[in-house]
């Protein structure tokens, strides 16, 4: 083991913002990046007398995540209040589920770098509301933006089953992909849509009790999580070797120094005075409801990869790339459904489309490309209507939202495969180049290339090379 | 024009408005004039909104549509009901000058009915108290004796109606805050079933106990107001999607054969013998009207006050955390740090009783105390619900005193919170069980009104109204006027 005689224990609490239309407890929209407090109303501001109404859609999104993580869904849930004062928390309590979490006893199978699969148990997951944001201005004032206040979150609490920073990293990657494929969140780290609270302790191998735990809250990059854990493993081991006693504390990851810094030492546990939220009625979750949510749950990345490889005969690596995001996988599925050849469609998405996305820094759903148009272009290539060379122009056009067949016709990009047109050209070129016929008969294959070149020039590049080649060989043999 | 609401009930006013014998403007002006003259004696109003009320009355007169039974008739609102643009402080310093940006659902409903709000009524700060002496602003007096408390927390609402200033008011009742001041002032006060009326816009004290209800001079008036404010509200998920009947429908049907239960515990500890006697003779009257009356037991009654003060204060401690000086209301001018903003704002902004309950509730919910306090109280609450359920298997109504005494002197009990808490012993169980409960005047002891409490099954307000109206019709105590009502 990398850390001498110490075993590392890591548990993760991951918060994911769920992209419902409205907030968990108010009708305000959920939308990132708007001007401060644009997406708020009296309920978000906790004006005197306002009441919450629970968003059923948010609960269903939570159920999706629970199902995707193989958790048992509670038949009865109640909301609880977690009480604490902070300016980004206008009611001074957070509405959460502490006594009756939505899901319990789940698991996630995580593929590790060494190829092994590790099952990480999910202790529980619950739905709760996000807080707003405090910012501290240069003018000495502090500002509160409540746009994020009330955004529904699902919090996923793992058992302490992870034993290295790399395992934690792999777990987060895998968890992110599972969540992406439930369709509840794009889980964009840079927008804070997925954040991890990290708990780590070390103990000598064989020790019965866990070591003293350190917590790092709201780490918003998987790399930061890994770096913070690597640092903590070393720091804690060094301290124990030096005979120091570790203290239970909250630390913060500092990227510039790739180290962690102590924030506050917990002498007594926080007392959040949890109690049942009297403003919201408890909710019963029937098996019928669970079945309905399960029926609408998008297929997971793993299910899709298997289908791509087994049924569509896609290379495993390509299947991996196609299932990086739900948007890409859905797009691919729809393109194939629209009649495109699976392999050619996959190649376009992985190659040209991805290159386009990288170049323009757009998300697939932000482009004008549609599955129908991509499938249309692939079909034009497949049936020989356009050449792969012509397809380059058509591709540019469909990325601008053009319909491929109409575009190809309008711009004379339709390939000429008609022998009635091609034959006179072949005769003409052969008549004009008797030396090439001689060379061909003398066994010089290069002559064919020259003749094809002449013919392509004559057709302004529009001749179907396959048909042309066949026709030329046939005519040459007759000379 | 002089005007006295003792001469007219809501139906009568409605007819006069329909027949154009009276305009909404005349009525509103007369009401405002009466308040201006009489409020020095009773101090029921924290503020009036004459210009807005008169403008609304004028619009109604111009439109001429008085088809709604409440259209064109003035009323008052307890100061914990959110009114857009109109100062609403919950009688607390922490919301001094606070102007809400939205109307409570009940306010919207009354406005839609054409009711004219003339002002906001005094109360105990955030509805915490039983005498209205915990108001941060003024001391309201009892309509019958200005040296006595009006009861509370809806003391302003009760006195204003009893003094004839307005025909009806809305109050809120968490542990008796409508029924007890109604009893002290000799009027009809009704706490509907929990979930019958939307709480959206009611400044929350204890969310699982709070309920809005009407205070009126007569039973029929009360039913008419409840008709206007009851019903499911999508903004309040604890409001109930149950059909709302016409609460006046069974008035006049009498109580022959009605099965009435009288809990013996309601006449035990701490009840003034004269009050007990008056209530017993009222119950005798019900028997004479044709009801069967039996003594029953609600054995967990004596644990009600303790359970209530834990549950109520726990919820209140959490609900009142939003008054933090950050977004609205008072912020201590001395606050230099975030911690200061919280500590100083709340220390300076809240009164003693509010602080007492916040401390009690915070303690009851804390990690070491939760099981022994909050959880235990919640279990007691279940036992109290079961007590009621058992009795209601065999009876239509439970009847007893509303309060153990008549109104006591101003300043008499304010320094003895425990005595004040015990005075709620007969109203509290009704809130814990979420039941409808009404208080009606059952006569006088030493010149002060005594309240008779009628408790019904969940969502069976109509039976309570039916019985209360039969009693009212037979006794006509409501016709007796306090001096203040003769004076102005």
Description:
The complex is a heterodimer of chains A (479) and B (488). By secondary structure, chain A is α+β, with helices and mostly antiparallel strands. Chain A contains 15 helices and 16 strands. Chain A has three domains: 279 residues, no CATH class; 112 residues, no CATH class; 60 residues, Arc Repressor Mutant, subunit A (Orthogonal Bundle). Chain A has a nine-stranded mixed beta sheet with strand order 2-6-7-10-1-11-12-13-14. In chain A, strands 5-4-15 form a three-stranded antiparallel beta sheet, with no helix packed on it. In chain A, strand 8 and strand 9 form a beta hairpin. Chain A is elongated and about 100 Å long. By secondary structure, chain B is of the alpha/beta class. Chain B is built from 16 helices and eleven strands. Chain B has an eleven-stranded mixed beta sheet, with helices on both faces. In chain B, helix 2 packs antiparallel against helix 3, helix 5 runs parallel beside helix 6 and helix 9 packs across helix 11. Chain B starts with 9 loop residues before the first helix and ends with a helix. At the A-B interface, loops of A face helix 9 of B. Chain A: GO terms for molecular function: ligase activity.
Gist?
The complex is a heterodimer of chains A (479) and B (488). Chain A has 479 residues and is of the alpha+beta class. Chain A has helices at residues 56-68, 165-180, 222-241, 287-295, 301-310, 316-322, 326-337, 342-360, 371-382, 388-399, 404-410, 419-432, 434-441, 446-458, 465-478, and strands at 6-17, 72-73, 76-77, 80-83, 93-96, 103-111, 117-129, 133-136, 142-145, 152-158, 194-204, 214-219, 249-254, 259-265, 275-276, 283-284.
């Amino acid at each position: 083991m990398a850390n001498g005689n110490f075993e590392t224990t890591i548990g993760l609490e991951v918060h994911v913002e769920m992209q419902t239309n409205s907030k968990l407890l108010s009708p305000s929209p959920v939308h990132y990046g708007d001007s401060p407090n644009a997406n708020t109303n009296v309920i978000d501001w906790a004006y005197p007398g306002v009441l919450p109404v629970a968003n059923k859609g948010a609960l269903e999104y939570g159920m999706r995540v629970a199902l995707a993580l193989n958790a048992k869904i509670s038949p009865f849930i109640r909301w609880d209040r977690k009480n604490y004062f902070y300016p980004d928390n206008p009611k001074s309590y957070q509405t959460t589920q502490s006594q009756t979490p939505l899901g319990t006893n789940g698991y996630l199978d995580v593929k590790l770098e060494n190829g092994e699969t590790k099952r990480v148990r999910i202790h529980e997951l619950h739905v709760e509301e996000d807080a707003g944001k405090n910012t501290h201005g240069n003018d000495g004032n502090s500002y509160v933006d409540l746009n994020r206040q009330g955004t529904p979150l699902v919090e996923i609490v793992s058992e302490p089953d992870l034993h290295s920073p790399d395992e934690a990293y792999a777990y987060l990657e895998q968890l992110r992909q599972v969540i992406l494929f439930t369709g509840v969140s794009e889980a964009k780290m840079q927008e804070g849509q997925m954040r991890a609270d990290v708990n780590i302790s070390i103990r000598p191998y064989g020790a019965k009790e866990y070591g003293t735990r350190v917590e790092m809250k709201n780490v918003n990059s998987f790399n930061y999580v890994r770096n913070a854990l690597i640092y903590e493993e070393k720091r804690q081991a060094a301290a124990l070797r030096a005979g120091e006693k570790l203290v239970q504390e909250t630390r913060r990851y500092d990227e510039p120094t790739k180290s962690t810094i102590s924030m506050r030492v917990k002498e007594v546990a926080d007392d959040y005075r949890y109690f049942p939220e009297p403003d919201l009625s408890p909710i019963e979750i029937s098996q019928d409801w669970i079945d309905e949510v399960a029926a609408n749950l998008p297929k997971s990345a793993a299910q899709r990869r298997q289908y791509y490889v087994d049924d569509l005969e896609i290379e495993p690596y390509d299947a991996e790339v196609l299932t990086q995001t739900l948007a890409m996988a859905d797009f691919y599925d729809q393109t194939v459904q629209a009649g495109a050849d699976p392999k050619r469609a996959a190649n376009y998405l992985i190659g040209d489309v991805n290159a386009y996305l990288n170049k323009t820094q757009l998300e697939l759903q932000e482009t004008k490309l549609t599955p129908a148009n991509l499938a249309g272009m692939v079909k034009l290539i497949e049936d020989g209507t356009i050449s792969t060379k012509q397809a380059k122009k058509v591709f540019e056009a469909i990325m601008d939202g053009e319909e491929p067949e109409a575009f190809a016709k309008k711009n004379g990009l339709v390939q000429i495969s008609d022998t009635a047109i091609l034959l006179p050209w072949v005769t003409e070129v052969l008549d004009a180049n008797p030396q090439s016929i001689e060379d061909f008969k003398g066994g010089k294959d290069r002559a064919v290339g020259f003749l094809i070149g002449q013919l392509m020039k004559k057709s302004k590049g529009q001749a179907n090379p396959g048909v042309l080649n066949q026709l030329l060989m046939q005519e040459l043999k007759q000379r | 024009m002089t005007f006295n609401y003792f001469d007219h009930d809501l139906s009568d006013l409605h007819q006069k408005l329909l027949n154009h014998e009276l305009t909404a403007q005349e009525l509103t002006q007369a009401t405002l004039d009466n308040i201006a003259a009489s409020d020095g004696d009773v101090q029921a109003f924290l503020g009036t909104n004459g210009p807005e009320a008169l403008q609304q009355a004028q619009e109604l007169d111009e439109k001429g549509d008085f088809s709604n039974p409440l259209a064109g008739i003035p009323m008052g609102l307890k100061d914990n009901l959110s009114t857009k643009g109109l100062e609403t402080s919950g009688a607390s310093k922490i919301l001094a000058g606070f102007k809400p940006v939205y109307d409570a659902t009940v306010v919207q409903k009354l406005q839609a009915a054409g009711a004219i709000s003339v002002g906001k009524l005094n109360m105990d700060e955030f509805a915490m108290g039983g005498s209205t002496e915990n108001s941060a602003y003024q001391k309201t007096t009892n309509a019958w004796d200005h040296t006595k408390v009006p009861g509370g927390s809806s003391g302003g609402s009760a006195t204003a109606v009893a003094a004839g200033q307005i025909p009806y008011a809305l109050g809120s009742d968490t542990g008796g805050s409508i029924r007890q001041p109604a009893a002290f002032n000799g009027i009809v006060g009704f706490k509907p079933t929990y979930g019958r009326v939307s709480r959206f816009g009611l400044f929350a004290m204890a969310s699982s106990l709070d309920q809005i209800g009407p205070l009126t001079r007569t039973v029929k008036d009360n039913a008419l107001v409840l008709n206007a404010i009851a019903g499911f509200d999508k903004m309040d998920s604890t409001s109930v999607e149950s059909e709302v009947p016409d609460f006046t429908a069974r008035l006049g049907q009498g109580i022959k054969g009605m099965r009435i239960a009288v809990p013996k515990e309601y006449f035990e500890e701490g009840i003034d013998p004269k009050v007990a006697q008056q209530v017993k003779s009222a119950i005798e009257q019900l028997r004479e009207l044709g009801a069967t009356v039996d003594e029953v037991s609600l054995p967990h009654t004596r644990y009600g006050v303790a359970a209530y003060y834990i549950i109520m204060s726990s919820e209140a401690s959490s609900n009142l955390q939003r008054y933090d000086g950050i977004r609205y209301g008072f912020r201590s001018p001395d606050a230099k740090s975030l911690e200061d903003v919280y500590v100083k704002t709340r220390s300076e902004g809240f009164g003693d009783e509010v602080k007492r309950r916040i401390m009690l509730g915070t303690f009851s919910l804390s990690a070491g105390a939760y099981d022994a306090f909050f959880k235990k109280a919640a279990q007691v609450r279940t036992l109290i619900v079961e007590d009621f359920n058992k009795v209601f298997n065999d009876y239509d109504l439970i009847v007893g005193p509303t309060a153990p005494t008549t109104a006591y002197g101003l300043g008499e009990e304010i320094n003895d919170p425990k005595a004040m808490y015990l005075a709620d012993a007969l109203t509290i169980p009704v809130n814990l069980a979420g039941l409808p409960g009404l208080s009606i005047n059952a006569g006088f002891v030493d010149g002060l009104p005594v309240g008779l409490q009628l408790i019904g099954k969940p969502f069976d307000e109509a039976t309570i109204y039916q019985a209360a109206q039969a009693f009212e019709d037979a006794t006509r105590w409501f016709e007796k006027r306090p001096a203040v009502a003769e004076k102005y």
